[in-house]
Amino acid sequence: MAWTNNDDVRWGPGDTELTAGRVLYWLTTIVAVLMLVFAVADFFIGWTQGTPILRIFAITAAAMVWLIGRICRSLLG
Which among 62, 67, 12 has a CA at the least distance from the CA of 36? Predict the structure, then answer.
């Protein structure tokens, strides 16, 4: 018995070309993750020094960068 039902696959076979939207999405995702990692690292460094401060602006900026990437992916295909 062969399983050939591909209804739950996001992209079909052969639909893996790189578009400007996908490239921008992945670049902004990488930048957002780096921003988040540095914000969390700053929190833990501050925690060890006795003054833990969570940088809400950095987390919000990372979320905005990621959302801009999502918008680019949907608009540019």
Answer: 62
For the chain, count helices (H), then strands (E). 2, 0
Say if residue 6's pLDDT is above 90.
Answer: no
**Count, residues in the chain:** 77
The torsion defined by the Cα of 34, 40, 44 and 46, in degrees rounded to 10, comes to 90
| Residue-wise pLDDT tens digits, 38-51 | 999 999 999 999 98
8 Å CB contact between 28 and 72: yes
Q: What letter would DSSP give residue 8?
A: T
Among 18, 61, 21, CA closest to 39:
61
